[in-house]
Design brief:
about 350 residues; alpha/beta; Rossmann fold; seven-stranded parallel β-sheet; three-stranded mixed β-sheet; 14 strands; binds uridine-5'-diphosphate
């Protein structure tokens, strides 16, 4: 069953549109006059996050269902967010990642080829670079992933080059650094189960839902000994997808851009900022280093700034944490969890 809709609206198929970054992209698409068609298997996605267009439940590995939805809506382009993204799990269960992230993307690309849809925006990741050789990381850095998650994403980037050469599918891969923050209107935000990301975990501690945050190592070669990451606001990521969509109308090729803030923040800085924003106590304990964590990961996003005119609006850590807290707090209040 697919919903009927008028064919004068411009439609974009958004796989994973019920997820964290996908739902923010749907909101951004709607703001510029597109109807996002969310295609999501709801394994990790949330029906409540689908607010700006129809939700079509389906799996990217299900070619028949993809054909049905694509034929019904005839989207102009596809934004492909649907993927599994737990690095540790990908090491323990690589098959799950190659099947969903790689074979799923392949199934989707073959469907697009057969329906003559030639514009594709792909959620890639800084995990495709592997251990950084130089900092900040620019797009020409070697791509040698160190886990199956990064491998599965890199394989899709490679497929995109081949699908362009053979079938004319133009694509932009956006390599995200650490997505963070939430919609500034508080309509959607980050909710993963299980949660592994630093900022939502710290917010749970601030809210009294977890007792403490464990810092994974304080003996790194960084100014305060804790790891430095490039936190980039999810709304800025969503805006980059809109710019990429415009670019694809005049571009021919398969290219990639970094999406980072260019500024690194340490785990300690994130905790300190969260204390200031929430005014709650945040107990910490120092734990072991987490396997595979480099000391510092910071992206150079000069290329997308210059070529697509991307300007992050939420580049300071305070606004990233404030928007995340605003959403997180309201959700916990609704769920009747403790605040401070
Ligand atoms: N981190 C931490 N404690 C946690 C979760 C994360 O110290 O409970 C650190 C982690 O080692 C990394 C940073 O926070 O340096 C960001 O981790 P996250 O899992 O959010 O993103 P990643 O960088 O792994 O994609």
């Amino acid at each position: 069953m697919v919903l009927k809709m008028s064919h004068n609206q411009k439609r974009i198929l958004v796989t994973g549109g019920a997820g964290y970054i996908g739902s923010h992209a749907c909101k951004a698409l709607s703001a510029v006059g597109y109807t996002p068609i969310t295609y999501d298997n709801l394994v990790y996605g949330h029906p409540w996050a689908v607010k700006w267009g129809p939700l079509e439940k389906g799996d990217i590995l299900d070619r028949d269902r993809l054909d049905e939805v694509i034929a019904a809506y005839q989207p102009e382009a596809v934004m492909h967010f649907a993927a599994y993204a737990y690095v540790g799990e990908s090491v323990e269960n690589p098959g799950k990642y190659y099947r969903n992230n790689m074979a799923g993307a392949l199934t989707l690309l073959e469907a697009l080829r057969d329906h003559q849809i030639d514009k594709f925006i792909f959620s890639s990741t800084c995990a495709t670079y592997g251990m950084p050789q130089k900092m900040p990381i620019s797009e020409d850095h070697s791509q040698l992933p160190i886990n199956p998650y990064g491998n599965s994403k890199l394989m899709v980037e490679q497929m995109l080059k081949d699908f362009h050469a053979a079938h004319g599918i133009r694509s932009i891969s956006l390599r995200y650094f650490n997505a963070a923050g939430a919609d500034s209107d508080g309509e959607i935000g980050e909710k993963h189960d299980p949660e592994t990301h630093l900022i939502p975990l710290i917010l749970d501690v601030a809210a009294g839902k977890r007792s403490q945050i464990t810092i994974f190592g304080d003996d790194y070669d960084t100014p305060d000994g804790t790891c430095i990451r490039d936190y980039i606001h999810v709304t800025d990521i969503a805006e980059a997808h809109i710019l990429a969509l415009e670019k694809l109308k005049s571009m021919n090729g398969a290219c990639a851009y970094n999406l980072g803030n260019g500024k690194g923040f340490s785990v300690n800085e994130v905790i300190e900022t969260t204390r200031k924003v929430t005014k709650c106590s945040i107990p910490v304990q120092i734990g072991q280093r987490r396997a595979g964590d480099p000391a510092r990961l910071v992206g150079d996003a000069t290329l997308i700034r210059n070529e697509l005119g991307w300007k992050p609006a939420f580049s300071d850590l305070i606004s990233i944490v404030e928007t995340a807290w605003n959403w997180h707090k309201n959700r916990l209040i609704l769920e009747k969890n403790i605040i401070c």
